[in-house]
Description:
The chain is of the alpha/beta class. It contains 3 helices and 15 strands. It is elongated, with a radius of gyration of 24 Å. The mean pLDDT is 86.
Amino acid sequence: xxxxxxxxxxxxxxxxxxxxxxxxxxxxxxxxxxxxxxxxxxxxxxxxxxxxxxxxxxxxxxxxxxxxxxxxxxxxxxxxxxxxxxxxxxxxxxxxxxxxxxxxxxxxxxxxxxxxxxxxxxxxxxxxxxxxxxxxxxxxxxxxxxxxxxxxxxxxxxxxxxxxxxxxxxxxxxxxxxxxxxxxxxxxxxx
Length: 191
């Protein structure tokens, strides 16, 4: 927080310096307009306020920061990666922000805590699920009203539906083993 205050103070100082210089130039020359001054200040403010976001990696399982995937999802910020250690996790996970959820090494298993619900329910665009075994739910992975999600290298088995696309478009489902489900890929109003 302190670094943001310092950056803001620096931005204000730079803006004051530049406005003073431009104001001086305007007094000496009628060619520089007020709109140029406003445009220059706006560009400077925008350039200094754009802070590149850095994604964090959150870990789940033995030696990790979290014991459940849902805890990590809840703590994550958009763009973060959740790395899951080998093991079996019994839970139903709702993902409501763009995240990457991936196996740390060997393929972890995520088994539905409630078989009448989806093991993974994705409600945000830009979610990536990779390298997991997903079992025992209504759907292994359900994409609900979303787009630009990627489900890859997943073994989904013993679900009613391996992957369920509901009102979802522009998603990628590739390189998966979806055998031993009622339906492998099921779509309602999806493309």
